[in-house]
């Protein structure tokens, strides 16, 4: 049941997704495999690690003026996902190699920020959290999967309501927040020409909103990582970092709809882990949502990587498992270490070919296209796809590539003949769809 039938090479005229019908066009690239994930709603399962983590975060901010949205459907307009947030026309995130399009004006959201404008418009409290599944065409490996989950947080203050007192109100809100016990390197990188404050906000307002944003994220990070430390210690880890205060750092970032913008990284098991992007919401984004009197912040945090370290889950694909041996290990409100139930060896296969001659480099077979094709053939049995080798013929200028595919199942051993069949289909589709010249 893990493997899926070959997708139709022809795109159907329309797609039915979550009860709605959409016309397809030359932009359509969402596959049946990816569309089959849209109704899982893992973040809403109380006994699933992602549901448990969402609940833990929501509980942490209970009573602090946030509304929680968990029911936004994943099909959104290109306008909501990109235009309204000020993504430039040529932003790479818009390309068909990175994003799953239903048709030219409709797509699977690539981030929870797609709902910011709507929430700013309708939310009755000063802040909100949105939790949802998001989709990106990406490499597959232990920590990347084409579907994952994010929590968006946002908080604003009204000039109309607070008038000249707005600075005092934000300062009081900041001082009311608990002070987390974290060692923060570079706690307040200042804004400057490349990461500027906005014209309609004073320096003091910008500094205070930034401090409120960072404090809020640090509270979250402290809570999550202290739990992760307890779990790691209970599991017998002797890493001395586990007994020292948590370390984090702020670095500058860029997002089209925030300025200034930052990312937080947390020191975990010997490396800096990217946790979340954030910034001060740009005025035009709020104005597009009909909000003219508010200023404030937004952040977006990925759930899977956090859940992997909290629950000791070794592979991101496990979150989508329907195997009882996975699902039965978790319980609402509890964080415990995942116990692997079995390990089956993987099988590595290569596929090599000459690429056809093309006018522009952009017409070449893209790594994401190949990954996607392999995934639509062998489903979650594909552990990893990577470009292994590339060669340009010195005389003809022709390019050959070798891709390495690792097939592996979490719950059974795969037979050689089964893998041969997948490999045959991969080769067949490569030559039919991409006109490559296969090497033996
Ligand atoms: C965003 O998606 C922005 N929407 C975040 C944001 C919100 C910024 C509001 C400003 C204001 P980014 O692409 O960096 O940014 O993703 C945010 C987080 O999602 C990352 O820090 C990471 O934790 C997680 N993430 C990103 N890509 C993946 C992936 N392929 N698999 C798992 N988690 C991912
Ligand atoms: Mg990022």
From TrEMBL:
One annotated Gene Ontology cellular component of this protein: ribonucleoprotein complex
Main location: mitochondrion
Keywords carried by this UniProt record: Aminoacyl-tRNA synthetase, ATP-binding, Ligase, Mitochondrion, Nucleotide-binding, Protein biosynthesis, Ribonucleoprotein, Ribosomal protein, Transit peptide
Record domain FDX-ACB: where: 342-439
Catalytic function, reaction form: tRNA(Phe) + L-phenylalanine + ATP = L-phenylalanyl-tRNA(Phe) + AMP + diphosphate + H(+)
EC number: 6.1.1.20
GO biological process, any: phenylalanyl-tRNA aminoacylation
Biological role stated in the UniProt entry: Is responsible for the charging of tRNA(Phe) with phenylalanine in mitochondrial translation.
Family: Belongs to the universal ribosomal protein uL16 family.
Name of the featured protein: Phenylalanine--tRNA ligase, mitochondrial
Species the sequence originates in: Nadsonia fulvescens var. elongata DSM 6958
């Amino acid at each position: 049941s893990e493997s899926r039938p070959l997708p139709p090479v022809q795109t159907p005229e329309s797609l039915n997704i979550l009860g709605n019908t959409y016309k397809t066009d030359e932009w359509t690239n969402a596959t049946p495999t990816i569309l089959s994930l849209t109704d899982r709603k893992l973040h809403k399962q109380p006994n699933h690690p992602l549901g448990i983590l969402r609940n833990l975060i929501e509980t942490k901010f209970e009573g602090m003026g946030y509304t929680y949205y968990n029911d936004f459907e994943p099909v959104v307009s290109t306008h909501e996902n990109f235009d309204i947030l000020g993504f430039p026309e040529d932003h790479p995130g818009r390309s068909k190699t990175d994003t799953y399009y239903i048709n030219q004006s409709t797509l699977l959201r690539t981030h929870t920020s797609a709902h910011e404008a709507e929430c700013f418009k309708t939310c009755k409290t000063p802040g909100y959290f949105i939790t949802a599944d998001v989709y990106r065409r990406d490499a597959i490996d232990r920590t990347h999967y084409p579907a994952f989950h994010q929590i968006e947080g946002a908080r604003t203050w009204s000039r109309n309501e607070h008038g000249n007192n707005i600075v005092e109100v934000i300062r009081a809100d900041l001082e009311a927040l608990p002070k987390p016990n974290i060692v923060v390197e570079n706690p307040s990188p200042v804004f400057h020409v490349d990461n500027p404050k906005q014209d309609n906000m004073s320096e003091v307002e910008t500094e205070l909103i930034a401090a409120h944003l960072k404090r809020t994220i640090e509270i979250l990070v402290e809570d999550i990582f202290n739990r992760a430390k307890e779990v790691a210690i209970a599991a017998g880890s002797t890493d001395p970092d586990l007994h020292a205060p948590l370390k984090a750092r702020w670095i500058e970032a860029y997002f089209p709809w925030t300025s200034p913008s930052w990312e937080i990284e947390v020191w975990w098991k010997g490396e800096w882990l990217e946790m979340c992007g954030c910034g001060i919401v740009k005025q035009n984004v709020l104005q597009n949502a009909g909000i003219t009197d508010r200023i404030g912040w937004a952040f977006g945090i990925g759930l899977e990587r956090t859940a992997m370290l909290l629950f000791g889950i070794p592979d991101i694909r496990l979150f989508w498992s329907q195997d009882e041996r996975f699902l039965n290990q978790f319980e609402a409100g509890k964080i415990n270490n995942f116990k692997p139930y079995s390990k089956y060896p993987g099988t590595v296969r290569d596929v090599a070919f000459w690429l056809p001659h093309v006018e522009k480099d952009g017409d070449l077979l893209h790594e994401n296209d190949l990954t996607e094709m392999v995934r639509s053939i062998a489903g979650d049995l594909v552990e990893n796809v990577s470009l292994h080798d590339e060669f340009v013929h010195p005389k003809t200028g022709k390019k050959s590539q070798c891709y390495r595919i690792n097939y592996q199942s979490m719950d059974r051993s795969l037979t050689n003949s089964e893998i041969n069949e997948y490999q045959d289909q991969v080769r067949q589709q490569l030559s039919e769809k991409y006109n490559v010249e296969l090497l033996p």
